[in-house]
Amino acid sequence: MATDLLNISSDARNTLLVVTTLIVAVTFQAALNPPGGVWQDDRYDPEQNCKVVPGNLNKCTRLAQAGSSVLHTRSEGRYGTFIFVNTLAFSAATSTIFFLLEGSPFQTETLISIYCMNFAYAASVGAVQPQTATTWTLLFVALFSPYIFRLFSHIIKSHKVAREQDVPQGPPVFQRGAC
């Protein structure tokens, strides 16, 4: 088994790439089709006797919009939890893929692809979630957290290595008669 600079065997790297790719696919699909699905048509307050005539809807209260998440309509808290955890899993998996392919000949293309996937994920979630500040905040915190954690981890590691190189090894040695 060949190893690289990160001490990961090629078999382990390949296994991790397969697993993280599956996680990306499953979480992306879950974002497009959240639990409970999406509303197929607009829902209006039944007590207002609204008819599906564009000119008549001005006085009607819309309860749910076609294409939006049913789960969010039924339980905002559960939807928020779902979207946060799903997005965190998606982002951690894309971050891992980038980490595993770091140093490969196609590193730039991989980075572009991963960022495009992240933006496509955010756009997809934005299409099915209600447009509230809370849901967008949860989405972006979860989306960027793995990248921020990896950045801080890299910075801490760099400082630790720099400090270890600056620390003298043992007491200073004095030579007699050097002056």
Automatic annotation (TrEMBL):
InterPro entries: PGG_dom (IPR026961)
Annotated ranges, domain PGG: 10-123
Coiled-coil regions listed in the entry: none
Pfam families: PGG
Ranges annotated as spanning the membrane: 12-32, 79-100, 112-129, 135-153
Domain of life: Eukaryota
Any one annotated GO CC term: membrane
GO molecular function: DNA binding
Keywords on record: DNA-binding, Homeobox, Membrane, Transmembrane, Transmembrane helix
Keyword Transmembrane on entry: yes
PANTHER family: ANKYRIN REPEAT FAMILY PROTEIN (PTHR24177:SF441), CASKIN (PTHR24177)
Designated name of the protein: HOMEOBOX PROTEIN WARIAI
Species of the source: Salix koriyanagi
